[in-house]
Design a protein that fits this description.
Chain A is of the alpha/beta class. Chain A contains 26 helices and 9 strands. Classes of the chains: A alpha/beta, B alpha+beta. At the A-B interface, helix 4, helix 8, helix 9, helix 13 and strand 9 of A face helix 1, strand 3 and strand 5 of B.
Chain lengths: 643, 99
């Protein structure tokens, strides 16, 4: 056993959405994702903590659980760990039972269950600031007396909000025998203990145990003067509009629509600034470096390639600002509520909504978030269609094509045509996903509707600090991708597109003679029927590694095909001249359904423990993309009268 | 639809039949039949649908489903079939407030 593994293990356990991850971030200095809905954390996350006196602790953040009887794969992780059933893992030395101080009625029940396990438990009375603001007389020492457990107050979202917990952990380890000895009363629940009982008896025993726990909670709440149930909270007043059968869907439509409008309108000035900077840089390199392979590598490979992807950073930042604010506010589960019936029609439930929404950022976290779905079939379908949600990596592709081929004019007060087209593309992705889900339901037979049982949390004003951290992380990820994988792929592509060099007197552009040019010509046989030329065909290949690369790849391929240096670093004017409208529209349609990037396929393989799912994904998405692009190409050719 | 008068205190009804914004108390959480239903009832108990708890319907989505239910101090979205497992007694209009 290593020294690190011997450090005491602190586990954060609690109901979903009580702020465990916020506390974890405070304790360990990590920046794990937090948001206002149940099921943000679906994996165990480990961090390290050094107390002021220099003691080291391992801190574990676990997915939220309503009880120690797991129903979903993420809850299973928590229960197995707390009960010491995970292979290669000891039981935690201290369990920090995190409770939402504004809602002790539900959260205390899990504390009682944890207490019965007989391990050291300390209760973290979280969101205590919010509880006081609502006038709840929460009192840590009175609660400690009732529970027979140490209780500390915490505020997970404020710097220094975990000070009391840190002090406690320090004291606990200075004199382990003294503080926090748990009152071991009774034993774990019948099933948790692994006792051999028949199922019916176990169910009855568990139901009785839950009811007994609730009686105890009620007793404690009465003693503390916390038994009153809030009558009409501000959240309720918001919900009267947001959950209204008619007003609710309208609000949802307006929220989503303004998101896409803002992504277009708000980002323009920043994008122009980045474009101008990249062009300036290209010109500077052209002046400083002699013409030759090195100049070409930097101008055509790095600047035209990676630079043209970087331009889309402002749009990605805006999109994420919206998504993060929505996540933090508590609105997302409401949107799931409103869409549940619609999703039920295609054999999905509202439980699939949040994993699918996460997929708008990237399909990988979306596929992971599917762990919160209890029904195995729903989970499988959700994973399968998650990649059809338009991920942020596709945004640069859309933005480039829309910016180049869709005129920037207004089609109504405050509604720009470009934003409208972008919205339509996102809707097309969702429509495609629903169609696939419906088809699966029709083919495999739709089971009865699965349980919903989804928590609708209290609304919060989004925390600016949380928002800033989240945005900064997205910027870091994006810039790192541009700087590493995209840059590397662009250099490789530049190499393939430049060598072997064309012999003197070669009639066409030199790139046609290169390896990439020949490969492109070969692929174009497959893609010509849907309107893609060989340049597009070759750009699709590195796009399998990362979507945004397509933009960069087009930049490099066209930059090398171009004759003048004046346009270097700017792909838009090049493709505007080279493509017909039907080709551009066909490529947009292709990218609505385009076969997934490698990391998504790997995530799908890991989460379903089989290659069948990723294979199915690639197959059906390729077919969908090909058909959609083909229809778009030929239909728009006929409509526009383009030969 | 059963001919029930939801204001009469001795009448029990399924949670899904409760009129919007009417206070009620949970009488029992019962599984209809089969292993899945038992599981469902157990899960409902775990998230707080327990005898004696106060419940109220906050909203019904378009086409009558799902339901937004206040139980204790929590709000959960339930389907009609889930809510039907919960038997409730409306708290008489001119009546006892608080436990």
């Amino acid at each position: 056993m290593t020294a690190a593994a011997a450090d005491p293990l602190v586990a954060l356990v609690g109901n979903p959405n009580c702020g465990k991850t916020a506390l974890f971030n405070l304790l360990t200095g990590s920046r794990q994702k937090i948001a206002n809905y149940a099921g943000v954390t679906v994996e165990r996350k480990e961090g390290r903590l050094r107390t002021r006196s220099g003691r080291r602790l391992r801190v574990l953040d676990l997915p939220g659980a309503y009880s120690l009887r797991p129903r979903t794969p993420d809850e299973q992780i928590t229960c197995d760990f707390v009960l010491g059933r995970l292979p290669g893992e000891g039981r935690p030395d201290v369990v920090v039972a995190v409770v939402d101080a504004t809602n002790l009625r539900r959260h205390l029940r899990l504390v009682l269950a944890l207490r019965r396990l007989g391990q050291p438990v300390v209760v973290a009375l979280n969101m205590v600031d919010l509880a006081r603001r609502r006038g709840l007389p929460v009192n840590a020492s009175a609660l400690a007396a009732e529970l027979g457990l140490p209780v500390v107050e915490t505020v997970g979202i404020r710097a220094g909000g975990a000070a009391a917990l840190l002090d406690y952990l320090e004291r606990e380890h200075a004199a382990p025998a003294e503080a926090g000895a748990p009152v071991a009363e009774g034993a774990a629940s019948a099933r948790a203990r692994g006792a051999v009982l028949d199922e019916a008896a176990a169910v009855a025993a568990d139901m009785a145990a839950v009811a007994a726990e609730q009686h105890e909670v009620e007793r404690i709440l009465v003693r503390l003067g916390l038994d009153a149930v809030p009558a009409d909270t501000p959240s309720d007043r918001i919900d009267r509009v947001v959950l209204h059968p008619v007003a609710g869907p309208l609000v949802l439509a307006v929220v989503l629509f303004s998101m896409f409008q803002a992504v277009y309108a708000g980002a323009q000035p920043f994008m122009q600034a980045i474009t101008a900077a990249v062009a300036q840089l290209a010109q500077l390199v052209g002046v400083l470096l002699p013409a030759g392979p090195l100049q070409s590598l930097i101008v055509d490979g790095v600047l035209a390639g990676a630079g043209s992807v970087l331009v889309f950073l402002p749009q990605i930042v805006l999109l994420f600002a919206f998504i993060l604010a929505l996540e933090d506010s508590g609105y997302l589960p409401r949107a799931a509520f409103l869409l549940d019936r619609l999703m039920g029609g295609v054999g999905l439930s509202g439980r699939s909504f949040i994993p699918l929404l996460s997929s708008f950022a990237c399909a990988v976290p979306g596929i992971l978030a599917a762990r919160t779905i209890p029904a195995a079939r729903d989970r499988f379908v959700t994973i399968l269609i998650a990649p059809l949600m338009t991920c942020s990596a596709r945004l640069p592709v859309y933005a480039l094509l829309i910016g180049t081929f869709v005129p920037a004019r207004s089609v109504g007060p405050g509604i720009g045509l470009q934003g409208l087209v972008l919205f339509a593309l996102y809707v097309a992705g969702v429509g495609g996903a629903f169609a696939v889900a419906w088809l699966l339901k029709a083919l495999r037979g739709g089971p009865a509707l699965q349980p919903l049982q989804m928590e609708l949390p209290t609304y919060h004003v989004p925390s600016l600090r949380n928002l800033a951290i989240g945005l900064w992380q997205r910027i870091e990820v994006f810039v790192r991708r541009v700087g590493t994988i995209i840059l590397a792929l662009m250099v490789v592509l530049w190499f393939l597109s430049s060598f072997p060099a064309a012999p003197a007197g070669y009639p066409g552009p030199a790139i046609e003679y290169s390896l990439a040019g020949r490969l492109g010509a070969l692929l174009a046989v497959l893609f010509r029927p849907i309107g893609f030329n060989w340049q597009i065909s070759i750009a699709l290949v590195p796009g399998i590694a990362a979507r945004e690369v397509v933009v960069g790849a087009l930049g490099t391929v066209y930059s090398l095909s171009a004759t003048g240096r004046d346009v270097a670093g700017q792909v838009a004017p090049l493709i505007a001249r080279a493509w017909t409208l039907p080709t551009a529209y066909a490529l947009l349609a292709w990218y609505v359904f385009a076969p997934q990037c490698l990391s998504t396929l790997v995530a799908a393989r890991r989460e379903t423990a089989s290659w069948r799912t990723p294979a199915l994904m690639v197959g059906y998405q390729f077919a969908l993309a090909y058909v959609a692009a083909g229809i778009t190409y030929h239909a728009s050719r006929a409509l526009l009268g383009v030969p | 639809m059963r001919p029930t008068d939801p204001t009469a205190a001795d009448v029990t009804l399924g949670l899904e039949e409760l009129p919007l914004h009417t206070e009620a108390r949970i009488l029992a959480v019962e599984a209809r039949r089969g292993r899945e239903a038992v599981d469902l009832a157990e899960r409902l108990a775990e998230i707080g649908f327990l005898p004696g708890e106060r419940v109220r319907l906050l909203a019904r989505a378009l086409f009558g489903e799902p339901l937004a239910v206040r139980v204790g101090s929590d709000t959960f979205a339930l389907r009609r079939s889930e809510a039907a497992c919960v038997r409730v007694v409306p708290v008489a209009a001119a009546g006892r407030r608080g436990p």
